[in-house]
Write a structure and sequence with these properties.
By secondary structure, the protein is mainly α. Helix content is about 65%, strand content about 0%.
Length: about 325
């Protein structure tokens, strides 16, 4: 579809942006005092229906995103870059289920490009040819590792690397600057998280090189060398990259770094609020909705567990509007 083919779609998105949650509303949720009170406030915004629990409401909001985009765009595959994360999560779950006794309800995520039952059956029957070609080699390698060594962490690393590679590849292949940026940021920040975890657990360079996915904004060889050397060397390398602003958050925790990554993404997509053409405003809206759902989940979980308000606030993501 040509850029001018998205004019109507962008106009619809502009109207939907009026219903996005802002920082003031999220603060009100944090200050509501209880999960029940927060859910009532969300209901007034049109989130959920009577009798639904928090997770059902959040799942329903995720589905609303794709229902709307499905009305506006004939070919949803242009947004597969956002859906591959769920596919690879489900592949990982299917491999682990196939290598253990019994079934494990609730381990699969909706919203991917592949029916989870297909992955479940394929892994149970070792039918690698029944899954997409790009998944076959990492799936077979990860299952072989898990069966032979029972090393669940290495299994995860193999699949996570494949996921980052596919997300970045899809972003680059799109005709969207925003999707290309998204793919690069997801891959690079995923590599940094892997390197930090590897450094803290004493992983060697060869392990890290197997776990890191190549990207444009990081030299994964130097990243692996630094992470396997020391935390000081790793910090020094990150300080020399475009992700240097994340160092203070990394020193706090990986969850603080993940919040920084999400906020960086919101910052990068905000200019789309003033763009009336092309695919990018739609992609930005999808990301904005996903981010607000993530923030609401964080708030509800915090309220449910009686977490202090200041702790919840530190984890809430910035808003698009």
């Amino acid at each position: 579809m040509a850029d001018n083919g998205y004019i109507y779609a962008v106009a619809r998105i502009r109207s939907q942006e009026l219903h996005l949650l802002n920082a003031q509303f999220l603060e009100s949720l944090v200050s509501s005092g209880s999960e029940e009170a927060a859910l009532k406030m969300l209901a007034e915004k049109g989130w959920g229906s009577e009798g639904q629990n928090a997770e059902e409401i959040l799942t329903g909001e995720e589905q609303k995103i794709w229902d709307l985009i499905g009305e506006l765009v004939k070919d949803l595959s242009v947004f597969d870059v956002f859906r591959y994360e769920n596919d690879y999560h489900n592949l990982k779950a299917a491999i682990k289920e196939a290598c253990t006794a019994g079934t494990h309800p609730g381990i699969y995520m909706k919203g991917g490009t592949i029916d989870p039952s297909l992955l479940e059956t394929a892994m149970a029957e070792r039918s690698f040819e029944d899954i997409p070609q790009e998944m076959r080699a990492p799936a077979e390698e990860a299952m072989d590792v898990l069966l032979k060594t029972r090393d669940g962490q290495l299994c995860d690393c193999i699949i996570d690397r494949a996921a980052l590679t596919e997300i970045r590849k899809a972003g680059k292949a799109s005709k969207s600057d925003l999707l290309g940026l998204y793919g690069e940021l997801v891959c690079a920040t995923g590599d940094i998280k892997t390197a930090v975890r590897g450094s803290r657990t004493g992983k060697d360079k060869s392990f890290l090189l197997e776990a890191l996915a190549p990207c444009s904004t990081l030299d994964v060889t130097r990243l692996a060398e630094a992470a396997s050397d020391s935390s000081e060397a790793l910090n020094a390398y990150i300080a020399a990259t475009s992700y240097s602003d994340a160092l203070d958050e990394l020193k706090k925790s990986l969850s603080a770094f993940e919040c920084w990554c999400d906020n960086l993404l919101i910052e990068k997509i905000r200019p789309q609020l003033h763009n009336s053409f092309g695919l990018d405003p739609l992609a930005a809206f999808i990301l904005a909705r996903r981010m607000e759902i993530k923030s609401v989940r964080i708030i509800l979980t915090g309220l449910r567990n009686d977490m202090p308000g200041n702790v919840i606030r530190e984890r809430v993501r910035e808003t698009y509007v």
